[in-house]
Amino acid sequence: MIYLAYGIVLSWLMASPVSAMDYQLVPQAVAKDTYAFVGLAEDFTPSNGGNIVNTAFVVTDHGVIVIDTGPSLRYGKQMRAAISRITDKPVVRVYNTHLHPDHFLGNQAFKDVSILALEKTIAGIRAHGDRFADNLYRMVGGWMQGTQALVPSGVVIPGTREFGGHTFRFIERAGHTDADLLILDATTGVLFAGDVVFNGRTPTTPHADLDGWIETLEFLSTVPFDVLIPGHGPVVKTRDSIQQTKHYVQWLQNTFKEAANEGVDMAELMFYEPPRQFQTLPVIRSEFQRSVSHLFPSFEARAVPLAQPR
């Protein structure tokens, strides 16, 4: 078993040699002094190193604010280097929008500054962060070298804050996870939506509460913005991605509820065909099957309660 594990790791390293492990992070200007790094619409693979996520930063009068740090220490370091090519102002604050590993495992590259998150996100990272890092290492290999979970050092208090000439509104919601941080820069009109919104990519659901997610998306449809940076997919200026995410989550909910009520087996449900409007979404098959494994058992439990002891 040890030799097998060694062989797997060696094959990863050969597929992605250290010299080639460049995320090629290019800041995309989305508003005044506001930039996004837009990831690929793919699953985690040894070839992409986990670069499937959107991260961002804002250059303020008092320094740079970073929103999410990517999937690895290597990503965080390369992100920080890319920021330094845009501005000589220091990074002064980092926000993690939620507990999923592609959004916080770059924290080590920012360990010299304040890293903030919602209280439940901090608890989740503290409890599961190292396991997330190990799991991502199995999926992407050597890109993760040296990566360990760094728990945020401070709690985000929801509300409005002035910082460096910007007015930021910090919003606590839930649904994609048990704590989803939305950040609205009212000065530029940019909404950093985290994984509450997916644009042109199938949503992920490992910690999802579908009812809560739909409620959050309905709330989000009332929030004014000029630019939306989703957790995954292209940056947009419309609300279409909010509706797309909502429709997909509603379809999952309705499909799982009907299947459970009809006694459909999980193995059979895995091969359901999505409706035409979702068939062209990247990674639809793999993400749907993961959603079945994540969520369907709870629908089955509600549809067919366990027999009560006599």
Explain what the structure shows.
By secondary structure, the chain is of the alpha/beta class. The chain has one domain (8-241): 4-Layer Sandwich (Metallo-beta-lactamase, Chain A). It has helices at residues 2-15, 73-84, 101-104, 119-140, 210-220, 240-261, 266-269, 276-279, 284-303; strands spanning 28-31, 34-37, 55-60, 63-67, 91-95, 114-117, 154-155, 159-163, 166-173, 180-185, 190-198, 227-232. The strands form 2 sheets. A 7-stranded mixed sheet has the order 1-2-3-4-5-6-7. A 5-stranded mixed sheet has the order 8-9-10-11-12, covered by helices on one side. The longest helix is centred in the middle third of the chain and has 22 residues, at 119-140. It is globular. Residues 1-18 have low confidence and may be disordered.
Question: What is the compact description of this entry?
Answer:
With 310 residues, this protein is of the alpha/beta class. It has helices at residues 2-15, 73-84, 101-104, 119-140, 210-220, 240-261, 266-269, 276-279, 284-303; strands at residues 28-31, 34-37, 55-60, 63-67, 91-95, 114-117, 154-155, 159-163, 166-173, 180-185, 190-198, 227-232.
